[in-house]
Backbone:
């Protein structure tokens, strides 16, 4: 037994020595020349790049990028289309984002997304049809045979008055096919600024609040602090009424008085956050209502909850604001406040005073900007407060 162990030990030593010799032979016989040639070629290219101060480095980098892009374009679709895991992830992501579009029916024949199931495709079509962003500019529209101003106004989401005011002399009964009409981006007045005019004078002229002019996202100002205007610029006045012109479509927000904030006991019911006048309603670009009162006044909690924000944390246009989490999927925001009566973390009851109306942030006068928020987006407060 002892001799066997000695034999195996000697054999193992000899085998290891043999393997080392064989590896050295193979490396020197087959690989070393190739490595040497590779080093020569590499040194040549590196030397050229150094000599030319990187003249060709950008060309090489661009070539590599183009190659990667071509591979992505040619090979990528075949990998994605049949990847069921990717389909499941996309379907899940879309399903979480289309709650706000549940009432929209997908259009037949709409563009298809490769590799998606029928159910997922419906979700994609539904989501892509939903857009609540206003247009930025006036568009020209050629009237077709049999069309009316009422039909055209409905097609563009504005009222008849707004189209008439922008197209002097156009009458509903005399509209002809081929007529080119200018259509405003939203219901209201499109105004060309003249010397001496301000947003305050225009607000008074067109019977709206100056804040509604400021909040329209495509209105520009030469000074964002004072909201100064440039002579000759075009300004959109949402919900404006043309002076001395008959109004066919009702404007029911400009002079609407806010009801008294009475006590409400039912959970999920809302009281008015302030007394005053509604100067701007819920719009795609202004998902809130503005309640104004010249001499200010207290701001009340619309429902019970916990204060999660009380301050001006991000230097944004909201100014001083309070956000209350009501614990039932709703949050309310109260912006442009002048004073606070609560701190973050405390609880408040419905009707408690939480602050004072002010004009901080992007504001043209004393008012409160009031929002009702849900996970799917902001809701029109008037649908809850009435």
Residues:
């Amino acid at each position: 037994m002892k001799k066997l162990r000695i034999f195996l030990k000697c054999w193992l030593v000899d085998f290891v020595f043999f393997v080392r010799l064989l590896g050295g032979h193979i490396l020197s016989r087959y690989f070393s020349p190739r490595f040497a040639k590779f080093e020569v070629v590499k040194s040549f290219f590196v030397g050229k790049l150094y000599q030319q101060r990187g003249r060709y480095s950008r060309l090489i980098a661009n070539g590599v990028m183009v190659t990667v892009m071509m591979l992505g374009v040619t090979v990528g679709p075949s990998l994605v289309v049949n990847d069921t895991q990717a389909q499941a992830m996309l379907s899940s992501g879309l399903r979480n984002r289309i709650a706000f579009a549940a009432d929209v029916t997908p259009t037949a024949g709409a563009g298809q997304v490769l590799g998606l199931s029928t159910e997922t495709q419906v979700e994609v079509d539904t989501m892509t049809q939903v857009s609540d962003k206003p247009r930025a500019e006036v568009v020209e529209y050629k009237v077709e045979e049999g069309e009316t101003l009422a039909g055209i106004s409905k097609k563009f989401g504005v009222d008849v008055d707004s189209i008439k005011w922008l197209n002097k002399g156009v009458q509903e009964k005399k509209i002809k096919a081929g007529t080119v009409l200018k259509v405003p981006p939203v219901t209201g007045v499109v105004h060309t600024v003249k010397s001496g005019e301000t947003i305050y004078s225009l607000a008074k002229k067109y019977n709206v609040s100056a804040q509604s002019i400021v909040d329209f996202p495509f209105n520009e100002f030469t000074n964002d602090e004072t909201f100064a205007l440039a002579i000759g610029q075009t300004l959109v006045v949402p919900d404006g009424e043309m002076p001395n012109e008959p109004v066919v479509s009702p404007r029911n927000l400009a002079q609407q008085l806010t009801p008294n904030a009475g006590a409400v006991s039912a959970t999920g019911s809302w009281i008015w956050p302030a007394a005053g006048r509604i100067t701007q309603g819920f719009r795609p670009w202004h998902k809130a209502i503005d309640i104004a009162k010249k001499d200010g006044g207290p701001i009340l909690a619309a429902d019970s909850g916990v204060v999660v924000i009380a301050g001006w944390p991000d230097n944004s246009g909201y100014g001083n604001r309070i956000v209350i989490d009501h614990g039932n999927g709703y949050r309310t925001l109260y912006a442009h406040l002048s004073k606070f009566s609560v701190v973050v973390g405390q609880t408040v009851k419905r009707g408690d005073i939480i602050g004072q109306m002010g004009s901080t942030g992007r504001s043209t006068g004393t008012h409160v900007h009031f929002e009702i928020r849900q996970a799917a987006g902001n809701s029109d407060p008037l649908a809850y407060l009435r």
Summary: The longest strand covers residues 367-374. The chain is about 35% helix and 15% strand. The first helix runs from residue 2 to 51. Residues 80-128 form one domain.
